[in-house]
């Protein structure tokens, strides 16, 4: 064959186009069928020549002839044949289309099983499949069991068919590279989205004496930033502030709005921790963001709360703006909505009303805050889970802790599967059950 450097360049082109691994299919099958029709020959193949084998990626022939060597010609498949002394291997040495009138008289066919054995090939014409930079990958071949000559027009058509095979391989290579680039871009977008999402959520919740706190974020899409948010942070004295909400939209705009909302809620709470006042301040900021602009008004839903230690439990004051009710899971397993009457969307309405309510978390009680991606998820019947479905799920789980609440919600989201169409953020707070000291018999918080 060619010298070792030339052959290595050729094999590198075969590897670059993944030609030996290419799938057979309609385009190559049609080329083989057309080649046989043009030559009025019984057999035609499309082959790729590797280092030590010839691979047939398309074959055409009449049903009466079941095989050409190892190649089924009634059901074309990718088949490997030895390379030494074969007509297809010799075809890549030629600069253009050529014909072997009688293969039994041709020294290059000495080791070809289809010449020595069945079906006894005598005539062989081939056109090399050549890359744009001149490297031959294989050939389009026409074969007959009788000696014959090939006309110039036939050989020119065979060259055109080889060019069509090369065009198809080129398209497949470009498609493969495009898919790989898209995969890399998607992976990069997912990494960026995860990084950005992490910056919008606290890296870890602080430890609150006498309280357990846990939170989770369940994204629907790995490469799109959602607008759900939550936080827990210290206020003055022994009080703690917490919030959870959802801004409109997704992507970069939602990320920017989420950052603004989180910063505003924390800053407003430092100025005045009254939950109603905090939401009113947030509304004023969002209204100002929209003033005089052409873009749709930015808005969100949110629940803001203040925790105040009180004996073996906590007093809780909540204010909501267009957000689903918080759910208290009591120590006896009863699930109770904590939902002030009213409470409108934040940032979009003129003079909105925000509602406030007070409650208490006793020893063994837990509180769950969540975004509507959970309650708007569809069940297997097609209906929304809604607050009643979530309440029933929590009631079935019974008395719980913050960590167990998150596990229950995680299992629920997993069970809903594709019925979940929006991101879900959850924040759970729980007061450990009271324990009795074996020595004194007194009770205290765990």
Can you give a write-up of this model?
This protein is an alpha+beta fold and 446 residues long. The chain has two domains: 1-177, GAF domain (Beta-Lactamase, 2-Layer Sandwich); 201-431, 4-Layer Sandwich (Phosphatase 2c, domain 1). The protein has ten helices and 20 strands. The protein has helices at residues 4-16, 26-39, 87-91, 113-116, 152-199, 251-271, 275-290, 372-375, 386-397, 402-416, and strands at residues 43-49, 53-60, 67-68, 71-72, 79-82, 98-100, 123-130, 136-144, 212-218, 228-234, 240-247, 300-310, 313-321, 326-329, 335-338, 355-361, 366-370, 424-430, 434-436, 443-445. The strands form five sheets. The chain has a six-stranded antiparallel beta sheet. A five-stranded antiparallel beta sheet has the order 9-18-17-14-15. Strand 10 (228-234) and strand 11 (240-247) form a beta hairpin. It starts with a helix and ends with a strand. Mean pLDDT is 83; it is low at 63-85 and 438-446.
């Amino acid at each position: 064959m060619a010298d070792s450097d030339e052959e290595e360049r050729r094999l590198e082109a075969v590897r670059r186009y993944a030609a030996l691994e290419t799938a057979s299919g309609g385009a190559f099958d049609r080329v083989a069928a057309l080649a046989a029709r043009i030559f009025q020959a019984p057999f035609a193949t499309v082959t790729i020549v590797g280092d030590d084998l010839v691979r047939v990626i398309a074959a055409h022939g009449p049903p009466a002839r079941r095989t050409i060597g190892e190649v089924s010609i009634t059901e074309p498949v990718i088949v490997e044949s030895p390379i030494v002394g074969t007509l297809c291997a010799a075809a890549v040495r030629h600069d253009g289309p050529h014909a072997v009138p009688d293969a039994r008289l041709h020294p290059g066919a000495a080791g070809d099983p289809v010449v020595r054995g069945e079906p006894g090939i005598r005539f062989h014409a081939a056109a090399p499949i050549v890359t744009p930079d001149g490297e031959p990958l294989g050939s389009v071949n026409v074969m007959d069991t009788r000696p014959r000559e090939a006309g110039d027009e036939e050989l020119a058509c065979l060259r055109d068919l080889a060019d069509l095979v090369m065009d198809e391989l080129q398209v497949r290579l470009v498609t493969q590279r495009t898919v790989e680039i898209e995969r890399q871009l998607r992976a990069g977008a997912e990494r960026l989205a995860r990084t950005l999402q992490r910056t919008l959520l606290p890296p870890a919740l602080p430890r609150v004496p006498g309280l357990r706190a846990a939170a989770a974020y369940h994204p629907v899409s790995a490469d799109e930033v959602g607008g759900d948010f939550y936080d827990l942070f210290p206020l003055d004295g022994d009080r703690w502030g917490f919030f959870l909400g959802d801004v409109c939209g997704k992507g970069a705009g939602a990320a920017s709005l989420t950052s603004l909302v989180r910063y505003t809620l924390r800053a407003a709470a430092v100025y005045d921790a009254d939950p109603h006042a905090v939401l009113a301040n947030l509304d004023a900021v969002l209204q100002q963001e929209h003033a005089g602009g052409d873009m749709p008004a930015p808005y969100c839903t949110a629940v803001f709360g203040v925790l105040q230690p009180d004996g073996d439990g906590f007093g809780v004051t909540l204010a909501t703006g267009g957000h689903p009710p918080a759910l208290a899971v009591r120590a006896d397993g009863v699930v109770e909505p904590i939902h002030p009457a009213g409470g409108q969307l934040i940032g979009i309405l003129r003079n909105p009303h925000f509602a406030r309510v007070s409650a208490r978390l006793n020893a063994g009680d837990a509180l769950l805050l969540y975004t509507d991606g959970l309650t708007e998820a569809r069940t297997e019947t097609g209906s929304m889970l809604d607050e009643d479905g979530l309440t029933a799920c929590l009631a079935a789980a019974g008395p719980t802790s913050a960590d167990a609440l998150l596990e229950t919600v995680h299992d629920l989201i997993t069970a809903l599967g594709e019925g979940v169409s929006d991101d879900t953020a959850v924040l759970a707070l729980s007061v450990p059950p009271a324990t009795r000291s074996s020595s004194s018999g007194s009770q205290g918080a765990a």
